[in-house]
Design brief:
418 residues; alpha+beta; Alpha-Beta Plaits; four-stranded mixed β-sheet; three-stranded antiparallel β-sheet
Length: 418
């Protein structure tokens, strides 16, 4: 095992391959607070990539209802149980300050071989049963209520910041991890990260369908196709990212799931990577850099697994904190505080979600007048009608939106005018 740097864990870790990073990395931010669970993203992906024979149960994009839902069912609970079995009571984060926290437990690479029946595997994982793949919408909209009861409402009602009766939607695609478990586990070296954008792909000519990638990935995003006896997975819509979609005009374009999002919860980007550290290069004009690195309101999903996923989530603000700490790591409290009382810059950047199909590389803010003032958590929140401008890879303006949505009054000359 080689030693690599995982900045999400705040420490070095073990990984089967030497450290190597792409020039740029496919990354995204999902705002769970906005999702309405419409599954438009799911069907956009399905209708584009997985409608053929043998792909009936392939959902590269899915939206599951937490805490009970999951596709495959219990994918996260099972992996969490495995690493706990390998390192009982040791899966903890250090308490050395919010910005200094370090994961003191074991990743799925470090825990490999320490669980009965795992043998000499390079990654700790499990292979889902066929039955676990059968129900992509299991427990959809099922709430967590009184202890031990599903779909029941707590009699004391609900107040922020945490509800006693709750659920939330978790949007999932392949995280195109910096240290992919699927790459580490594949005995055929059939899986690789593209050097130009870090998208993880499976070489169908090399794959023999051993399903080691399915077993190893903690997020269960590689999926086996029986008709071809190979594994397949989300490809990050790389033709669109390359600017080869006819609609793109040669510019990098968002994936199908991103561009179809009704709730405007998604933002995709390509971030520059430091070849030595594997961390993001500083880019104060990148909207993703601001959300992930500056404000830290977007967090990785199960960072303790050690894959360094490149998908980030703004946590739901009404969910009990212990549940979110387990899912998104120790930065949850600060992330939610920064979201419910956003800075002026963050408020503007949040308007850029899902406003154009082209990838926004840079942004600029033109300040506007103050339009509202309120109190949040005992502190004043001022809202300004700023204009935020998004630019493409070449620096051309591609979108311009304001914080306050404008009113459009239709003239009374149409049959359906009121």
């Amino acid at each position: 095992m080689a030693t690599v740097r995982n900045w999400q864990l705040g420490r070095d870790m073990e990984y089967p391959y030497e450290e190597h990073h792409p020039a740029r990395q496919f990354a995204f931010v999902f705002n769970t607070n906005r999702c309405i669970g419409c599954q438009t993203c799911t069907m956009a992906c399905k209708s584009t990539w997985s409608l053929s024979r043998g792909q009936e149960f392939m959902w590269w994009n899915n939206v599951e209802t937490k805490p009970y839902g999951g596709y495959p069912h219990n994918w996260d609970l099972k992996t969490l149980a495995l690493v706990e079995e390998a390192n009982p009571g040791g899966q903890r984060w250090s308490e050395n300050g919010e910005d200094q926290k370090k994961f003191e437990g074991q990743t799925i690479f470090e825990a490999a071989g320490k669980v009965a029946g795992q043998g000499q595997e390079r990654v700790l994982g499990y292979l889902p049963t066929d039955d676990e793949w059968r129900y992509p919408n299991i427990y959809e909209d099922t709430a967590k209520g009184p202890k031990g009861r599903r779909d029941a409402i707590d009699g004391e009602g609900a107040t922020l910041p945490e509800h006693k009766t709750w659920f939330f939607y978790l949007q999932r695609i392949c995280n195109h991890c910096s240290y992919p478990a699927c790459v580490a586990a594949c005995p055929r070296n059939a899986i690789y990260k593209r050097p130009e954008d870090g998208i993880v792909l499976i070489d169908q000519k090399r794959c023999r369908g051993y399903r080691k990638c399915v077993e190893a990935c903690p997020y269960k995003k590689p999926m086996y196709r029986s008709t071809t006896r190979t594994s397949e997975k989300c490809i990050g819509c790389y033709p669109r990212v390359e600017g080869k979609d006819p609609l793109s005009g040669g510019q990098p374009m968002e994936t199908r799931c991103m561009s179809a999002c009704v709730g405007k919860i998604r933002m995709q980007g390509l971030v520059d990577i430091d070849a030595n550290t594997g961390d993001w290069k500083e880019d104060q004009e990148s909207p993703l850099y601001h959300l992930v690195k500056n404000e830290k309101i977007a967090l990785p999903l199960y960072p303790q697994f050690g894959t360094e996923p490149n998908g980030y989530y703004i946590p739901p603000r009404w969910v009990p904190r212990p549940y979110l700490h387990q899912m998104f790591g120790p930065g949850v409290d600060a992330a939610i505080d920064n979201y419910v009382r956003p800075s002026r810059k963050t408020m503007a950047i949040l308007q850029l979600f899902r406003v154009t199909q082209q990838i926004i590389f840079k942004y600029k803010i033109e300040e506007g007048p103050k339009i509202f003032e309120t109190e949040v958590n005992g502190e004043t929140l001022e809202i300004f009608d700023d204009t935020v401008i998004g630019f493409d890879e070449d620096g051309n303006e591609i979108t311009r939106v304001t914080v306050e949505e404008p009113f459009h009054i239709r003239e009374g000359i149409y049959a359906n005018s009121i």
